[in-house]
Amino acid sequence: MKTRMTSADIAVETACLRAMGCIGMRVANVYDINAKTYLIKLSRSGGETGESQKVLLLLESAVRFHSTQFARDKSSMPSNFTVKLRKHLRSRRLESVQQLGLDRVVDFTFGSGDAAYHLILELYSSGNVILTDCNYNILTLLRSYKDETKGVATMANHPYPIEGVKEPTTCDRATLEAALRAAAAEPTEKGPKTLKQAVGSALAYGPSIVEHCILSAGLKPSAGVEPSLLPPQSDLMLDALCKAVAELEDWLQVKRLPRLPHGCCPILLESASSADQFGVKNDYLDLVQ
């Protein structure tokens, strides 16, 4: 069972949480399940109806985030990190949940204006959970680290490097053609690069999404990129590939809207068309305990 979330998974899950009505709910409490997993209890008073609403939001550093229906054992004593989260987030309203560009990073905004706090969940590499103020200055975090190549220090009292976010871009025909030509010009020791490798160099959505686009175009991901696969001999193939990528990017754009349009449906990956299906992304992720 897949547990790591891709960039596309994150786009879907942020949309799921917005569609569930989590925006506007207040933090009732924060719990730690273990050193990397945290549970945020959100609630909304019933008002005139008298029916209150509660949602348990699970955040696991480097792995996943989603609402959960399962009861989980909590630490008998909250960690220092959890105590700090409670201090800054309790009673504050969840104002937004958004993916930072194309990165596997989620930004939960609690409160508004100068009183806002950002809880940033990193889902790549070793992961991280980071609390910042309204200006993205880091207050506390699970782990500190430095990236010497980028000259970035992720630690308390430093700004979170939000300016380094990879922004969404459109992969057009010229980009795909250039990727195919580059792959054909640089074969590996074992032979030609595969179509999956070539298209993967042009897309930033992860191998499963790349494979989906290729299969949707009626092509084989494992096919070698030979000169016969290059335009003009393969204009029809490139047209089909461009159409598949455009459909994916249109779908992702909808998922990034602040509110989902009525009737918006999840995408079914071609490689998983025979697998078990779930009503929403949360249901699948919640099985991973």
From TrEMBL:
Source organism per UniProt: Cymbomonas tetramitiformis
Record-given protein name: Uncharacterized protein
GO biological process, one term: ribosome-associated ubiquitin-dependent protein catabolic process
Gene3D superfamilies, per the entry: ibrinogen binding protein from staphylococcus aureus domain
GO CC aspect terms: RQC complex
Molecular-function GO term, any one: tRNA binding
One Pfam short name: NFACT_N
InterPro entries: RQC_Subunit_NEMF
Signal peptide bounds: none
Source superkingdom: Eukaryota
